[in-house]
Automatic annotation (TrEMBL):
UniProt name for this protein: DNA-directed DNA polymerase
GO terms assigned for molecular function: DNA binding; DNA-directed DNA polymerase activity; nucleotide binding
Keyword Coiled coil in annotation: yes
Enzyme class: transferase
Pfam families: DNA_pol_B_2
Organism: Macrostomum lignano
Start and end residues of each DNA-directed DNA polymerase family B mitochondria/virus domain: 755-1016
Coiled-coil ranges from the UniProt annotation: 14-48
Domain of life: Eukaryota
Manganese keyword on record: no
Catalytic activity: DNA(n) + a 2'-deoxyribonucleoside 5'-triphosphate = DNA(n+1) + diphosphate
Taxonomy of the source species: Eukaryota, Metazoa, Spiralia, Lophotrochozoa, Platyhelminthes
InterPro entries (UniProt xref): DNA-dir_DNA_pol_B (IPR006172), DNA-dir_DNA_pol_B_CS (IPR017964), DNA-dir_DNA_pol_B_mt/vir (IPR004868), DNA/RNA_pol_sf (IPR043502), DNA_pol_palm_dom_sf (IPR023211), RNaseH-like_sf (IPR012337)
Documented EC number(s): 2.7.7.7
A biological process term (GO) from this entry: DNA replication
Amino acid sequence: MEQRLTPDQIRQLLANERQQFNRLQRQIEQIEQRQRQQRRQRARERQRERQREREIQDQQINALANNIRAEYEMKRLIEKAEYEKRIAELEKNQKKPTRRKPRNKSDEKPLDEFIRVYRFEPMQNVLDFIETQLSNGYAVEITNARVQYFYNKTGDDREEINQYLATFYNISQFQAWFKHLVENYDMNLSVFSGRLKMTPNEITLKHERSKQGMGTNVMCEIVEYKDEYCYIPSDGNCFYKCVQFIYGDKAPSKDEYGAWLFDSRTQRGLMTNSRIGRFNEYFNLNIGLYNTKNRGIEPKSQRGIHHDWLLINYFHTPDYHIGHYCLISNKQRGIALERIKDNYKVVYKNPTLENVKELKMFNTPTNPNKSNVYIFDFETYLNYNQQACPYAVGLLNYNDFSNKCNETPEEIKKLTKILISDRGCDFQTDGDKVDRAEGSQPKVDCVRKMFKYLGTVRSKGIVLIAHNSSRFDSYIPLFCNIKPIKILKTPRGILSITFVNDYASKEVSAFINKDKKKNHKDSKQTITMLCSYQHASMSLKKFCSSMTIREDLRKTSMVHDITEHDYLERMDEWYEYLQFDLISLCACIHKYNEIAYEIGGMTMFDTLTCSSLTLKCWFKDFVRVEDKMKQYLKTEEKTNYIKKVEEIISPLKIEDYFDLSKLEKAKYQTLLRKEFSVHSHTNPYIRRFMRDAVKGGRVFALINKYESDCFQTIVDVVKAHLKTPTSDPCEVISSYLKSDMEEKKKIAIKLKKQLGTVSDCLMNFDGVSLYPSAMSDKDSEYPRAETARVFDISEEKDFLAQFNSQTFRPKTAVLKIMYENPNTVFLQHLPSKDKEKFYNPETKANETKTLNRFRNGKVIDTLCSVDIQEIVRMGGKILKIYSGIVYEKNYDFSPFQNYITNLFEMRKVFKKENNEAGSELVKTLLNSLYGKTVQRDITFTTHLWNLQTLKTEYDDTIKSYEKICDDLYYVEKNKDTQEYVDEEEESPITSLCPAQLGIFILAHSRRIMNNFITSIEGSKTPEIYYGDTDSLYIHKKHWDTLNKNGHVGNNLSQGKNDYGEGGIIFGYFIAPKIKYCLLLKDDFIMEEKKTFKGCANDKINFASFKTLYDGQSIKVNNNAPWKRSFEGGITIPQSGSTISKTYTSTINTFKREKPDKNGVMKPFFKNYFDDKPQHEHSIEYYNSLLFDVDYNCFEFDIDELALEKN
């Protein structure tokens, strides 16, 4: 009987077999390795033999080289002499040519200078010439070049090195190329022939763009037309529609065409004339493009083929490089072109079902930043060019400070690292890499020392934060010629700038790349600079006060007169000052982060600006439903949010929800995610349409002067006490304001005794947290974007009736309408954007400007339903609805309500606890959220290009560029609108902000302010002297009326007197943002409040406003501004440098009519628009303004109206 093996025995046999197999495998690998080593050894020996042979051959060639060169030079000299002799004979025998009329050089393009080297020239001579031209500021291009290396005297044995096609813009580029060349060849034995092209090293000529045929831009559309001679497709994919018209079912499908359209690196998603040939080859079709200029057919491959229809690219759109592909009959080309010209119609778009339904779920990342954080600060002196040069930099690790923030200042100062520039260092170069005399020490600036120090920190990413880095510190490394890899720049300055740390140590590089995958590039340490000023827009001293930092850790002061020659000797003056700059900022950020994390679980390091921080905190609060449910189980506070959750999961209770399995929870999670989500419109036209409905804050001046009955009495008391020599109120009040507090208190006692109580004065009635009130108000409705539909013209009659009867709300819509403010309205709900002509003394001609003003008459505008109904409330009437978007459903409660209410209650708690830091931060977060929801879409991309790339890509899409260093430019490039969107690369979420929510936030804020205005009949009668976004300057007599209507209080949606028991006893209200108020406080001490847009407060006084009021001009000397550039860094004007501006007295005459005898400035009445297509100011005229640059920008600076043209 055969014996069976047990399982253990089988396993043992298998293990033995496996071990034997592995042993054999290792032996085979060892044999193969020895064979490879032997092959490498033999290859190295053969290489050494060839090298020895080459050296012998080179020695022989060197011996012959001198003879070749001598013979060659002699031959050149003889040929040159013969050539010059022949030219002289020709010139002698030739008649003198007649002089031509000189050309107008301004009409000519700059010519490139060519030097052709037809004969073989010694290569060394050519290299010397190129280097000279580069030094003189020219760019040199080598084309059609042959470089040959000779091995014998006769020249038969020679080697062609390369055919070169290279361009050099600076010496460093040329040296890198030259270094590679001389490593292998002797330039004295090489000759060159070819062409050199020299051009000024400037960017002057734009490349002509390839003509694009996408139909039209986002704001207009084209009407389809067809007959026997031509075909005009509608806008969008016009080329594909023409192909379909010609080939019908044989044409490629839309998906195939879309895939091919995106198969391009440079013209991805765009159809241009240059791609027609490739389209024909790919799809095996015959599409010919008719060139209307030379009457030829393109591309060349189509010229011998018969076509029934020819394609043309017709240019008749506001963007001249964007054409529209049409078809013409090949038999009747002339008639067809005339038909296209007569029937080509461009009309302005309206919302459609397709573009309204283009939606994505809004999402913003809320992940914490885990980089290593340092606080940094530069100290600088001014060089001979008034440029800021860094002589020291301080660093303080944030985590180290957090662990020792309660220690003494002496202990905390030990945590700082101060790095000082070597005297005489060159900020533009690295001192370690410059050739030095033997024995001399390198001179390195503090910026590179900082990078070297951070290069020893074991971290892949390092974040540096400074106060006002966006306007100062971030420019310093650029001034020191350190190249960035990423820059985020806005009108606020450089919000973020990132560098690769080339000074990182080998140990840190090894640490960063320890987990690197095979065949992947090595990662490098990055350093990113951020700005804390974007979170707290105040000086560091005020930031310390706001965050209630310990007195012994606060910023100190010093006189900034350090120079290049004494910064080392005066170290005792600035060293400790720099340390406390670091410590105080770190303490402020630490306090800021503690409160921000308590509010929303985020810190300053996670966002670039305060508005981004509060947006992310709100979004995190709104969409994380389970966190809210857990919070409810702890507090048992049933908010509207929790009530909605209970409604969705009913009959299940919240406490039972967490006992469910994952599979059971999934059903409820889908419902909750659908309810608590935010969507954004993504169609470019719809976003532009929505943008027109964004209306900012209202500012108006309605009565130009106020004087209390008690003002003259106050002037007399002050004059008697101070014994001023004049009775002029302006001089008396100016003397009072200059006196010390003791004198003011003595005068206050006399005033209180003589006046008793003061009731005849103005108050600044200020809305309590206006934008937070609009976001949390129970009467505020907010639409759900996913329920959007197109306005149907059949609804116009019903909508007009509901708007004019003020019953449309709480329904929501965004509509383009015509409305009318009758002449009985004194203060309108919204300003109108009008175009007016102004006389310019410089050009001695009228110029058209665009301005916002509150006027009566007919207006066409795009508004949301809240604003439309408020127009009627303020006395207007809705006349017509043209188009728009209607939302079928709103959020059951404001999506901001829970977040805003929590913050507002938290602020009350902070105030009770005297926590000024928490109160100030919550106030900032409350007022910053709305701004992010109406943020403009970014319509350009940013790049860091070298000069060669910039010259190659320089065309009409380049918005702006700025030089950073020798061969690096910061470029802003306008985005191209694509025909197709690559659906495979599309994400189901978007970071585009939900503009529909921001529109309604702004509208509800105006509605709340209208509650105050209508209570005092301010829209019909001149009761308001001046108004700002959230405040009204009105008489105190209206206090009781406002209080009776429930508008007075410290709660949201209410208002209060911003001056407490005090009031304004005298005021000038010249124009929006130009006002002067003399305030009498409740303790009878006077104080001035002044605003003058474009001027510093210390440059204007009481007399300045009186001069404007009297109809005269004033001249103001403002401090000269700092200049900032990537290449030049910060340039600070000399002390005392000023810029003079002259302001006229007619500032507000463009906004309102001239004041009457009571100082009342009534509104203009102008009927600009008429609903007749042929009328100049019809809806077509309004639509045409959408393409006007002046019309679409924000209202131009008040200086343009105020400045007197000399």
